[in-house]
Amino acid sequence: MTCAAPVQGRTATRSTNPRLTSQKVGLRGSMRGMSLAQPAKSSHRSSSSRQVSFVVFSMDTHEVDVAIIGGGPAGCTCALYTARSDMKTVILDKNPSIGALAITHQIANYPGVPTDMNGEKLLDVMRDQAVQYGTDYRQAQVFGIDVSDEEFKVVYTPEGNFKARALVLATGAMGREPSFKGEGEYLGRGVSYCATCDAAFYRDRPVGVFGLNREAIEEAKHLTKFASTVHWITPSDPKEEDVHAQDLLNAGNVQHWPKTRLMEICGDDGGVTGMQVKVKTRKDNVVEDVEVDGVFVYAQGSKPITDFIGPEIAVREDGGVIVDEMMSTNIPGVYAIGDIRNTPFKQAVVAASDGCIAAMAIDKYLNDRNTIRVDWVHQ
Prior knowledge:
By secondary structure, this protein is of the alpha/beta class. It has helices spanning 73-84, 119-132, 195-198, 214-223, 243-249, 348-366; strands spanning 27-29, 52-54, 61-69, 89-93, 136-139, 144-146, 153-157, 160-169, 191-192, 207-210, 230-233, 254-257, 260-268, 271-280, 285-291, 294-297, 334-336. Helices cover 17% and strands 23% of the residues.
């Protein structure tokens, strides 16, 4: 499948360099950068149907008691409890502004919270509270984990590796399956969900970015440091008061395509060669072909984000991670909390409850306690 010749004047010149793929950043097969907007390749995974492998980089290694992947209400609550119990805790959060709670405009049913507070503000309070008790909060892209060792679980990020005695999965359920034509076909061969991982391989080459959420904007901004042209495709116009979007638009190598739909990602045996978009005009919709070497997709869905965890951790047919009443997975020392479990009760207060339960279970697990230690006791 190939794109038609690009429309003159609206596309960047294609590099003659051989195309590079996301495999060269240590992502192989179906391994991709963990993102609140990334699709799940399959709603059901098993060791026979899905293999995950990745290259381990030589990086700084940080040793902690508890590593929490995801900084939503579940992750922040868990961190609050573990840090308060003097466990060295780190939260690894791809982006604090794109989770289900963060994009909620009004909070009406969280106990003790005024109704004029939005989700992002509530999340800020939760995060600050966890940090005040000693949590190390880091904005970092997680692209893989290793849970094979009984003593330490390892989390791999571009910024370094984290060895943890207990690992908590709290990435939520805003993932999605590949939905654009060509997206799944060229995944790992020019289609990416992680500019932090792949941007350097598109130096002086044109790329496309689809999406209008904060993640898309920040990732596109990162790509401007490397790509010759960043074609930013948005289904509507960015808000004028969105300073992040306006800052991106002011970048000299950004070509904005407003009111535009991504119709198809095109390519050949070597990978992505372009994309087809439909531009909405006052009179009609115009289909145009844009020549790019890579396409970064940032769309949101409703599936658990689990495809960075590998086949060792058990999941249900619907994609939710299987846990017991203590939020423990089938791997000792690995816990799953919040919407990643794909329960029907997708509420911030339920996610926070999961985080509390997991934290108390972790305290019992790491300290070889026979019972759960409570924070308070009535006399």
